[in-house]
């Protein structure tokens, strides 16, 4: 069974998520790589599917599949993202979800 990670909800989660890639800039149609460090801090196994919520026109071209972590295990989730055709000079923030 896949357990969702509810970011920013205030509920205790057995998983810590840290951005291994703090920020990136992309030109139109340029690919960039993003990384999230996941760690199961709970006592039980955890299973989930990392996804990114991207700005309009952007798309993930490579995403990790489902992740299964035993208690105390770490995983580096890697994403390759293609920038929008009409990138403006306005910065965008993407959010990682599991």
Could you outline the blueprint of secondary structure elements for this entry?
Blueprint lengths: L14 E5 L11 E10 L5 E3 L2 E3 L5 E4 L4 E3 L4 E9 L12 E3 L1
Antiparallel strand pairs: 1-2, 2-7, 3-6, 4-8, 5-7
Strand order of the largest sheet: 1-2-7-5
Structural class: mainly beta
- What is the percentage of strand-forming residues? 35-45%
Query: What is the string of SSEs from the N terminus onward?
Result: EEEEEEEE
Number of contiguous helices:
0
Helix content: under 10%
Main β-sheet, in a few words?
Answer: 4 strands, antiparallel
Spans where pLDDT lies below 50 across 5 or more residues: 1-12
Mean pLDDT: 76
Give your account of this protein's structure.
With 98 residues, this protein is mostly beta strands. It contains no helices and 8 strands. The chain has strands at residues 15-19, 31-40, 46-48, 51-53, 59-62, 67-69, 74-82, 95-97. The protein has a 4-stranded antiparallel beta sheet, with no helix packed on it. It has a two-stranded antiparallel sheet with strand order 3-6. A two-stranded antiparallel sheet has the order 4-8. It is elongated, with a radius of gyration of 15 Å. The two termini are 13 Å apart. Residues 1-12 have low confidence and may be disordered.
